[in-house]
Specification:
The chain has 5 helices and no strands. It is mostly helical. It starts with 10 loop residues before the first helix and ends with a helix.
């Protein structure tokens, strides 16, 4: 069974995380986007691409730090490698 990255993982769970990594990465981006839009609606504010880029990049950095603390760097790299250019562009263009 897939466990979130913020929980301690067994070797079997780590393997499953790596196998499910790409799906997790895109799901994470979609859910972060939906949450951002919901928060804008809830706060009655207009969505801003600059604020969205900041939010998405902040969530990515949190995932990176959590995985580093849990010694899951291999899992993190497998999940996020396909999206590495996206996050680099967020930093440059912000």
């Amino acid at each position: 069974m897939y466990s979130p990255t913020w929980q301690k993982s067994s070797a079997k769970e780590v393997k499953e995380q790596v196998e499910n990594g790409r799906r997790y990465g895109i799901d994470f981006i979609i859910l972060t986007t939906k949450r951002f839009l919901y928060r804008c609606k809830f706060d009655q504010s207009h969505p801003s691409i600059k604020a969205f880029k900041f939010t998405l990049n902040r969530r990515y950095e949190i995932e990176r730090v959590v995985n580093a603390q849990d010694n899951n760097q291999m899992v993190f790299e497998r999940i996020w490698k396909p999206y590495e250019n996206l996050f680099k562009s967020l930093i440059i263009q912000s």
